What we know:
37% of the residues lie in helices and 17% in strands.
Amino acid sequence: MNKNSTAGILIGYQNDYFASDGILTGVIEESSKNNHVVENTLDLLRTVDLSMFITTPIIFSDDYSELADPVGILKTITEVGAFKKGTTGSETIPELEEFKDKITEIPGKQGLNAFVNTDLETTLRENNIEHVVLAGAVASICIDSTGRAAFEMGFGVTVLSDCISGRTIFEHEFYCESVYPLYGGVMTHAELRDALEP
C-alpha cells in the first residue's frame, strides 16, 4: 500500500457518539472502550503518514427535514435528537482538534454512506487516491456502507480493526472477521504503519 495514494477516512468522530454525555454514546461505548478506539485513532494520526485524512461528519437541521422517511438508525437519531447542527453533540470530538491542520472536513453526510451527498469521491480522485483506510463508527452501518461503496467505485479498502466501534463487541468482531474481508483488508493501525510503502 503506497502512502502517497492512500487516504484515511474518519467517520462519526462526533460528540454524540464519543463524548461521555453524548446522546448515542451508549450505542458504541462497550466496543469503543474495549478497542480503545479514540486512543488508537489519535496514535494513527500521530504516527501514520498518509496522503490525506478526511472526516465526514453527519449533521442535520433542527427538524431533520433532510430525512423524508427515516428508518433504523436514522429514525433513532431523529427520535433522540442527535447530530443537530449547532449543537455540541454534532461537533467533532475535541481530541481531534490538535490535528485540524492535517484533517480535511467534507460536509454533507446525512446518511449511512460517506460518499452520498458529499464531495468525498471527487476529493479522493482529485488527490489521486487509490486506497482508503476506514476508522470510526459504527462498524455495521457507516463503516460497512462506506467501505462497500468505495470498493464498488474501484478504491482499495482497508478497515482498521482497532479504530472502529460496533454496537457490541460481537458485532465488531463479526464484521472484522467475516464481512470486511469480502471486499477489503482488515488490520490494526500499527499493522498499517508497517505495511505502508514510501
